Amino acid sequence: MIIPPLTGVLPESLLSEFEAWLQLEIAKWDLHPRLREIYNYTLFSSGKRFRPQLVFLTGWYLEVPFQKLFPLAGAVEMIHNYSLIHDDLPAMDNALERRGRAAVHLRFAEDLAILAGDGLLTDAFFLIASTPALPGNLLIAIAHLARAAGGQGMVAGQVGDLYELIPSQNPDEATLRRVHRLKTGALIEASLLLPFWTFFPHHPELTRFQEYASALGVSYQIGDDLLDECEGTGKDYHRDKGKVTYRTFLSPSKLQEYCQSEYRRVESLLGSFPAHVRKVLLDLLRWTLERHR
Ligand code: GRG
Question: How far separated are the first and last CA of the chain, in Å rounded?
Answer without folding.
Answer: 18
